Amino acid sequence: MVLIKANTAFGYQANSAVRHGLLGCGSRGTSVATSFSENTSAQVVALADLFPDQLAAGKDHFDKVNAGLSRAAIDQKLMFHGPHAFEQLAACKDVDLIQISTPPFFHVQHLKAAVDGGKHVYCEKPVGIDVRQAREALEIAKRVKANQSVDVGFQCRVAPPIAAIAEKIKAGALGKVATVSGYYNSPASTEKVHPGAKPDEYRLRNWLWDRALSGDILVEQNIHIIDLSNWMVGAHPLKATATGGRNILSHFGDCWDNYQVDYSYPGDVHFSFASTQFGSDGRFEAGLKLFGSNGSATVPYSGPIQITGSQAWEWQESTSSVPGAGKFAANGAFLDNLKFADRDKDRGFVDSITTGPAHNQIAAGVDTALSCMLGRMAGYQHREVTWEDLLAHGETYELGFNLEELA
Ligand SMILES: NC(=O)c1ccc[n+]([C@@H]2O[C@H](COP(=O)([O-])OP(=O)(O)OC[C@H]3O[C@@H](n4cnc5c(N)ncnc54)[C@H](O)[C@@H]3O)[C@@H](O)[C@H]2O)c1
């Protein structure tokens, strides 16, 4: 039997660059791809975006990042724009890894092209904004090859203090979990004004407040906390009741600005979740608390991360104050307890590509996305919705126009 070293089996020598193509050169895409460049062997070699202006801004930025790392500027031949940019990137032989940072409505379509193109994929959350897309993603997951790696953008799980407390909770530090409460209260982002843009382009530029394009705040934003709760409890909710509405947002869009959801996990464990988009002073609070027979756990984005009770514990560094602490980061690059979340997420993903074992996080990503859709449906329909109701209903959202009109 011939033993093949892992890095050879995965096709990379220890120091060779993973050729990185960014799809969606906006705020989060640029932030994450920069983190990959600074913290891993991945090198941005290709860019793709629907809009030429976004693509050009991406080139300016990554040419500077590459120059700072003594790497070549991005070749014009590896720049793609328009409605077929994602397909061109997926077919590009000079790219190993595709990072999908487009609006949520497109994630599954773009994931399909990238996986079927044989690329490693880093796909932002949510994996699907409706049940039809979630089901399609599960089919795509089955086609991921053994040495092909796919990550979903739940970077909070690997933030060192959160990973540490999760390990203790999963090992039983709280005893039997009685209830969970979660919260995500954050500033309402401002509208991106694009004078002269036609209505469909305007929607795309402001996808964040459009239900079909974003999935609404529960699916697009609050998903991080719902993911942490599912992960720490070790299950998805079986049913939900919810309320919410649009009380203060007055600009473009149809997303709600607040949700109150009561989720039920197996064993009648209730997860009470509330979120609001409010004000504009940059302050925010996001996190969760778990209460059990032996004590409680507090897991905020900012502030002490600790366990009380018979197995009391605290993450020592989480209470230190750093410039920018407690400030909201719309691009997900929070400080405080999430300071190293992207760095460690990116390193783990690139290691899975270069030395293995490969990841396939699609099904886990779908499970969390469906949990958020469950709460959303309960809210919109003002009734209790079970997991089975959600799947049977099969709600679907349509874009309502053809992207070709933007070609
Ligand atoms: N993990 C996190 O913490 C986190 C934080 C913020 C955003 N996000 C996610 O990242 C994604 C991008 O968010 P953002 O804030 O960067 O948005 P953005 O609007 O700043 O960027 C989106 C980019 O995608 C491009 N685009 C739109 N439709 C496209 C299409 N069909 N094909 C190719 N390009 C297209 C836009 O032109 C834009 O450049 C979203 O899915 C969002 O949910 C994740």
Give a verbal description of the structure.
The protein has 407 residues and is an alpha/beta fold. Helices cover 35% and strands 21% of the residues. It has helices at 6-9, 27-39, 52-68, 85-91, 107-116, 131-143, 160-170, 199-205, 211-214, 216-220, 223-233, 341-354, 362-381, 387-393; strands spanning 18-23, 42-49, 79-81, 97-100, 120-123, 150-152, 177-187, 239-245, 258-265, 269-278, 285-292, 295-300, 306-309, 313-314, 385-386. A nine-stranded mixed sheet has the order 14-13-12-11-7-10-9-8-15. The longest helix is centred in the C-terminal third of the chain and has 20 residues, at 362-381. The chain is globular, with a radius of gyration of 21 Å. The termini are far apart. The protein binds nicotinamide-adenine-dinucleotide. Residues 23-29, 49-51, 54, 85-86, 101-104, 106, 124-125, 153, 155, 204, 220, 331-332, 403 line the site of nicotinamide-adenine-dinucleotide. Nicotinamide-adenine-dinucleotide (NAD) binds next to helix 2 and helix 4.
